[in-house]
Structure prediction request, 239 residues.
Amino acid sequence: MSEIDPMSIAVCTPTYDGKLEVSYTAGLTLLAAHRRMAMPFFLAYCSNVAQARNRCVHWFLHKTDYQHLVFIDADIGFGLHDWDMLMEGDEECVCAEYRKKDQTRKVRVLYGLGFARISRAVLEGLAAMRSVDEEHDMLLRFRMEGEEWIDYFPQGVVTGDTWRGEDHGFWLMVQLAGFAVRIERRTHLMHTGVAHFPYEANEFPDELSPYADPEGENDRLPDPVEALGAWAVPAIDLT
Prediction:
């Protein structure tokens, strides 16, 4: 059982079409019945997942006093065991793996945000990040609804002609800010699409991971300075 106060946790779920998978709903029902939880926050009808996640973070930081944000995507099925594994430990960030929606191969979603726990301290640390000249923000700021917002989920093409989604962009920034991320592989999450995609860590060969390094250690992100070079404002020079 987790030692984290369940009433200090905000469960945030983006759902672009307003729908929740049955397996997700069943997990949330079990969680409310057996582990207690604060009111979940649903962000519906936003087709841009990065914007949806930014709205969740903005609400969490500026409209609540919760201490932990847990992202659970609307197409992720989970149980009490999965929740307990996510809550275990005192790390600032925990990222659970699950299976990519790929019917031809067994591929991990490595460093996703479909089932992840993030502390308030991490988000506040990201908001305070500056580049080496101590003046320019590493994360872009913008105006929305009369307030200043921060883009915590940079995405796009970066060094090496690689596309980084909003989830990988976020975890790269977390690493660059100096926070450690614990990868959780003991969960048995169900990723649901046109079919069900169950996950068992020992069934996934590491070489199929796009983030596997030459030493076979795929539990770390690419070098953040290299990977984020195209996102730096201005370009980072840490030499």
User: Anything to note?
Assistant: The helical segments are 22-34, 49-63, 80-87, 120-127, 166-176, 224-227. The chain has one domain: 7-231.
